[in-house]
Amino acid sequence: MDRTPRDRSSRSRSRSTTSALAVAAVAALALAGCSSGSGGKKAEESAQGAAAGKASTPRMTVALITHQSPGDTFWDIVRKGAEAAAAKDNIKLVYSADPGAGNQAGLVQNAIDQKVDGIAVTLAKPDALKDAVSRAKVAGIPVVGLNSGVSEWRELGLLEFFGQDETVAGEALGKRLNESGAAKAVCVIQEQGNIGLTQRCDGVRKTFSGDTETLYVNGTDMPSVKSTITAKLKEDDAVDYVVTLGAPFALTAAQSVAEAGSKARIATFDLNKQLTGAIADGRVEFAVDQQPYLQGYLAVDSLWLYENNGNYSGGGEQPVLTGPAFVDKSNVGRVAGFAAKGTR
Amino acid sequence: MSTSRQAAPVVPAPPAPGPKETDGRTARRPLALRLLARPETGVFLGAVAVFVFFLFAAPAVRDGSSMANILYQSSTIGIMALPVALLMIGGEFDLSAGVAVITSALTASMISYQLTMNVWAGVLVALAVSLGAGLLNGWMLVRTGLPSFLVTLGTFLILQGVNLAVTKLITGNVATDDIGDMDGFGQAEAVFASSFGVGGVQVRITVVWWLVFAALATWVLLRTRYGNWIFAVGGNQQSARAVGVPVTFTKVSLFALVGLGAWFVGMHQLFSFNTVQSGEGVGQELIYIAAAVIGGCLLTGGHGSAIGPVFGAFMFGMVQQGIVYAGWNPDWFKAFLGVMLLGATLINLWVRRTATRR
């Protein structure tokens, strides 16, 4: 097709926009002169991860397959625990994840095809993984469970299980609310239809003697999370506790509480490094920590123990519980340093 | 077909007397019908209907601070819906708009934190990155001639992966570090994420920016040559080129404008929450596009307005928060949202048909 002269001039115009942009970028970098006097990387302590010696056992390969959705701080901590154990045990760790149950089953098959020496898998949707797990057993690969599936792992024939019973964790939080004399709690679910999150709220409802209401928010859009919680607090001023199911949402809920002029206090599941600060200064009351680092670490380490010494954690009958561990003002100082490294 | 004819008598009688109708062919159409034919009228009526509905269904909405909250929610959608609407009028659309917001916020946060610089340095680099992503979208589109669906689906996936991988690579975590105590944060917060009191109600500054940008976009669209180009390239690209409209420039700049919007909303998120999780933003692009479409912009291009998406975004915010204010069973939340949006869109459609059939 012919190009009109007009078109060519627009081309050179867009080229000059590009160079203007490049100039802007360089100018921005020149601003490096005006560096920040507070905060930032310089203020961060150089911290070393937990490191033990290294095993001299033969190199083995372990696959860790989770239902993580991308960019979630929680799963990042699980993976760090698994990596720490792998480094110590002379294990090559192959990590993969997919929130879709069918795709996750595919990843398990993939690990079987790679002839790994052990598989650690989360059972968020146990039925979808049943076949893949039994194929692994046929192939003679030991499989352990972690994080979700506390009531299904034995049925599927897994070796052992590391995690938290979400309902039990919810119940623990509900009991704690009773101690504080709360009357009405809102349980904020950031992903509608996620079974683990629903079980947590159900657990709270079971033991909490006051009212429990559920609130769904759009977890991928923080401004909307904030205004939805604000709206709920406005709608019902009897609410005196906001229970969130992830650390970033607790911090947002703290802003909502301030904005709505509510007296509600905040309790949450799971930790991250900003949250420890919020617990220390009282914006968030306490967190139930299921210790994701421990889940990843123990799952990988247990496969090494099984391979090299034939051990079963939990005796092959009972799950090994990693939570609920409460973090509040009394012990946050001890935990904060680890959370800052992103391992708690 | 028959429904619109049956429904026609419901249209209010034209209040304006107008000139004497001498000849049916040259007569000016009555004011009411001319208004109804505007792309934003339907959505305006839909928004009013939803608003009035919730005034009755949810008493808490009548409170001034509740209104401020609803407007805040609407503004974070609305600021992005504006450039998305302009792009749509220009005949293209952008699936990467949702994650582009997070890309911008992550960039600003990491540049400031990792290099320990004044946060404004991060803000400017993020601006360059956002505009760059927009220009890249536009450039690929005009160079390859592929549909914008495919090109921006590609950048959507790329940005999603890059957001996660680069954040993890640089910070060692999947969320950025807190920049709340760094130099320049206070100023940037004042620009992008502050709030001010009006009669005892705290209004977020994004609401003001939203309305300012909407006025600006309306002016550009209706009063400038560039606005004409947008309609022209969205209507018929070939004939637009034939009459001398710089098609390439218009399309590429529209994508850059979406980048600009993503930068602004990204900065708002960063400075109101101090830290960003790299997995956010997915799915938001559909909400922006929906706000534009509900606001009367055609998915096929060439028709629409800048004020329509303002009402579209308001309707989204109103329904989303209204359901919570009303205290309805939250299990039905998404279903309510869908039904309300479909209902409002049908009102929109009916109004437009009634207006253009006459």
TrEMBL record, chain A:
Keyword terms, alphabetized: Lipoprotein, Signal
Protein name stated in the entry: Solute-binding lipoprotein
Periplasmic binding protein domain sequence ranges: 63-306
Family statement: Belongs to the bacterial solute-binding protein 2 family.
Localisation per UniProt entry: Cell envelope
Family matches, as SUPFAM superfamilies: Periplasmic binding protein-like I (SSF53822)
Top-level taxon of origin: Bacteria
Molecular functions (GO terms): carbohydrate binding
GO cellular component: outer membrane-bounded periplasmic space
Residues of the signal peptide: 1-32
Keyword Flavoprotein: no
Automatic annotation (TrEMBL), chain B:
Membrane-spanning parts: 35-58, 70-88, 95-113, 119-142, 149-170, 201-222, 243-266, 286-302, 309-326, 332-351
Keyword Hydrolase part of the UniProt annotation: no
Region (Disordered) location: 1-25
Location(s) in or outside the cell: Cell membrane
UniProt keyword Transmembrane present: yes
Lipid bilayer topology: Multi-pass membrane protein
Matches recorded under InterPro entries: ABC_transp_permease
GO MF annotations in UniProt: transmembrane transporter activity
Primary location: membrane
One Pfam family linked to the record: BPD_transp_2
Keyword vocabulary terms for this entry: Cell inner membrane, Cell membrane, Membrane, Sugar transport, Transmembrane, Transmembrane helix, Transport
Cellular-component GO terms for this entry: plasma membrane
Described function: Part of the binding-protein-dependent transport system for D-xylose. Probably responsible for the translocation of the substrate across the membrane.
Protein name in UniProt: Xylose transport system permease protein XylH
